[in-house]
Amino acid sequence: xxxYPWRYSLAxxxxxxxxxxxxxxxxLAIEIRDGRLFGSLIDIFNRATPAALLAxxxxxxxxxxxxxxxxxxxxxxxxxVAAGLVVQPPDFLLHGMGVQPVAVAMSLAVLAGAVCGLFNxxxxxxxxxQPVVATLLLMIAGRGVAQLLTxxxxxxxxxxxxxxxxIGTTLGLPNPIWILxxxxxxxxxxxxxxxxxxxxxxxGDNPTAAHYVGINGKSLRLAVYTLSGLCAGVAGxxxxxxxxxxxxxxxxxxxELDAILAVAVGGTAMTxxxxxxxxxxxxxxxxxxxxxxxxxxxxxxxxxxxxKALVVVAVCxxxxxxxxxxLRRRRTA
Amino acid sequence: MKRALWLSLFAFVVIGCNSxxxxxxxxxxxxxxxxxxxxxxxxxxxxxxxAESDWRTANTESIRSEAEKRGVDLKFAxxxxxxxxxxKAIKSFIAQGVDVIAFAPVVETGWEPVLREAxxxxxxxxxxxxxxxxxxxxxxxxxxxxxVKEGEMAAEWLAKKMDGKAKIAELTGTTGSAPANDRxxxxxxxxxxxxxxxxxxxxxGDFTRAKGKEVMEAxxxxxxxxxxxxxxxxNDDMALGAIQAMxxxxxxxxxxxxxVSIDGVKAAFEAMVAGKLNCTVECNPLLGPYLFDAxxxxxxxEEVPKRVVIEDKWYDESTAAAELPNRKY
Lengths: 333, 329
Description:
The complex is a heterodimer.
Chain A: H1 7-23, E1 31-33, E2 36-38, H2 40-63, H3 71-87, H4 102-126, H5 131-150, E3 155-156, H6 164-167, E4 169-170, E5 173-174, H7 175-192, H8 196-205, H9 207-212, H10 217-243, E6 245-246, H11 255-265, H12 277-297, H13 301-319, H14 321-332
Antiparallel strand pairs in A: 1-2, 3-6, 4-5
Chain B: H1 2-23, E1 43-48, H2 54-70, E2 73-78, H3 83-96, E3 100-103, H4 112-120, E4 125-128, E5 141-145, H5 147-161, E6 166-172, H6 178-191, E7 197-204, H7 209-221, E8 230-233, H8 236-248, E9 258-263, H9 266-273, E10 279-282, H10 288-300, E11 307-310, E12 314-316, H11 317-323
Helix pairs in contact in B: 2-10, 3-4, 5-6, 7-8, 9-11
């Protein structure tokens, strides 16, 4: 594979921004309001955070030739745990734990996400259940667990402490962007400064060969799915904090698909092997840039999904070697 | 492969248990007179849309508690906002041979085949809350608010508040759903009489807070966003999301931009008391009593009207504080 598999999605992202620079007045403008940077560009990065976090974990999972369909549901569980522990509404399932400070509740919520990921990892790594089936289990049952936790209610969190994580800013930038940056650096360091990334790629490329050179496929998958669950846990508390409420039914709904799309658009093959974290991030930002453009320009809802699909098709075609081959032949013929 | 099979089986059992729990209704409780019918309990299958908003949750709660009160065996299925799940649920109710099927259709279209199956099986169907686009002989009665009327009330209130002049942004509900279609229609019906009231932006917020917030955030930065003087949201949750987006943009919701929404959930009343929301048109979710009145009549073979309208009214900042303590949902 050539270097920079994400170059086409980056180019398309550039095109989307260029389009806005010309046709949407004020889109690229960034001003400072109440000590925070304010503008559509900031929104794009801010709103892309949950999908981008999922995409980080998903990139590793896909690199092992797997997939994690449960991350959206894990977000719902994580949000429910965080909001529930802070508010302790009367029907909350974990009422035995008492009211917790925001920081403790959120940490436990992230932990809950990691435990869900661990569950996936055990099913896939040790019981050798196919990833689609294993994670489908938690995708369906997980949302049920979240609804059970909240008793089907939307748990609204009063006050500003809980919202600070998603709405607050640090050095002018919304906190989610910093969290994403930190997680991206952590994942980058983990996969490129240690042998972990190499193991992941080897195991995805050729599991048998990886096994014979001594890579432990079981614990590797355990680790990868746990990391994916951890990312979903963090995305879950950001989503809940953003609306000051845990919405078990809608939090993270279909977001696993956005994450898979982001990874694919970022140039990582679904068949496993080489992966690109940078590509996954660019993919997530590209998808959100399209969404924000559509919303800002007030384009009708009916065409929103079609525009997104066109963007994905364009990137996929550009990435396809046989598409280039066909083009080349046409030109020479 | 075998193991995968076992596991998916296990998954079905787990999921089945969940919905089973919810259907279990401990009888009696001394709360209300149980139905005096001797012998077999009335079995009702109800397919609910989901739990997409506080309103829906209150609606579910009302239906469940009413079933419990009357000693009806309620089989409750949550469709998670997907029509195909509802069709599956209705088919399984038919297979189980329940006495009455009730459902709140998530979207307007696509119900004819499954409702015809119910009719062929001789099971009466009652529609709650949203009207499906099917011939009238396929259901016994439709119980719910008049969404067009709600849209009209919202528009009338807004026209009065703005002296008949405003640039309006509209946050619509789930595309294709009856409340979204009808609330948009009703609002426009009244706007036709006010040439200076103009909808300059319309976008779906899918009835959720997160989407309502994201849409408003983008709108406020768009070229037409600067002229927006009023927001009309098809439900309270989207309005609550929009309020957050305005606050983060340094705009005072309820003052710089006037907001009117529909539903009348508790959180909306709290927002009105705080001066952030201006008006909500109540759409009463407590349909349980009406629904089971109709169900019992149908089960006994009595006549029921084809349409049962639940009356709505509106509340604004002046009446919100007095009403807030009465809000259960």
